[in-house]
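Figure caption, in words: inputs first, then the predicted bound structure.
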Amino acid sequence: MARVIIIGAGGVGTVVAKKVAMNNDIFTDIMLASRTKSKCDKIAKEIEETLGVKIQTASVDADKVPELVALFKEFKPELVINVALPYQDLTIMDACLETGVNYLDTANYEPIDEAKYQYSWQWAYQERFKKAGLTAILGCGFDPGVTSVFTAYAAKHHFDEIHYLDIVDCNGGDHHKAFATNFNPEINIREITQKGKYYENGEWIETEPQEIHRPLHYPGIGVRESYLLYHEELESLVKNFPTLKRARFWMTFGEEYLTHLRVIQNIGMDSIEPINYNGMQIVPIQFLKAVLPNPQDLGNDYTGETSIGCRIRGIKNGEEHTYYIWNNCSHQAAFRETGTQGVSYTTGVPATVGAMMFFKGLWRKPGVFNVEEFDPDPFLEELGKQGLPWHEHLDVDIEFEK
Ligand code: NDP
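Bound structure (NDP present):
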């Protein structure tokens, strides 16, 4: 008996619900709960029609601990997969502690009134989860998630010390819209408009947004302009791999995307400060989310591939080596399988695989952990089987200077 509750019925929640249902030999009892129950019901109907698997649905406001506690007491899950928004991480963790439920998410906590994400808030739960004998698995999407597991795999199998890490994230796809984000627009725009930051020789170095960029080559895609961003897995990776001398994160953006983003910023539509409009309090970025294309609906017309991986330099037996490990995911293939585009797919599949690791007892220990703190081998073995095969090259030209 493996009872799992998924919270959040957006693009990622759709993939998780479908992949969990496809693996109902492991996940025997499944509930999908979100703020808007009709979205859960629609996904549950598709799952029943296409896979013949029945899943339960419920409405829950995950900002409210008592609502979560009541739902967890009724359904009695062993694990919650949190694919709602980062704002709900702490309330869901609180409810887990109150009801004895284990926890997994794909994005670290971010306060709604401050565009700032860091692990300290969730790491502060370490002692409480440990004492309760519960496991919390943090950041189990693709990045963070697979990129962190890729790094752990490299450290385990190919290096004595890893020194330089560059996480490279390319969306080489085309959704044929003038402007759209690939996951929740509010979270996406908050992330990209922040200052950049990278780690070098024990210090964090801040940059202006999109200040540092360079063309990088991605397998199967070609050369794309790639921008240095701060990304949350850097924080846990430099802590868990203290031999790192430098850690950076790069993401590709097209000119069209950046031009739209500049306009959005210049006219104040990315603001998280509420404004008064006709007697109503409106948060500009939340209004913008409401008028932008829903990332969940982009799949139909999405062509091309994503390519995300880790480029690492370090030493083994006293000699320097380079290493590149990556996955390419086709938007069309993701759509055919789950009805969603590649970015939701590359997040939802690792979350499902992380939950499988938990139920198989392979990723289960009391406390709060980032994914790189677990054994990477069984996760990566399963990841390929679940639709995200990966590739590795040792001693290749990885394009980065020392
Ligand atoms: P969506 O906006 O498509 O979906 C979010 C879902 O959460 C919606 O169903 C929404 O409900 C629900 N939700 C929001 N607030 C609440 C609440 N208070 N109570 C209950 N449900 C709530 O987002 P995505 O599916 O694109 O992203 C989901 C998560 O995945 C995000 O946290 C995102 O940061 C993360 N992510 C992680 C990645 C990784 O690689 N690690 C990559 C991409 C995303 P409603 O429909 O009612 O608004």
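The first strand starts at residue 3 and ends at 7.
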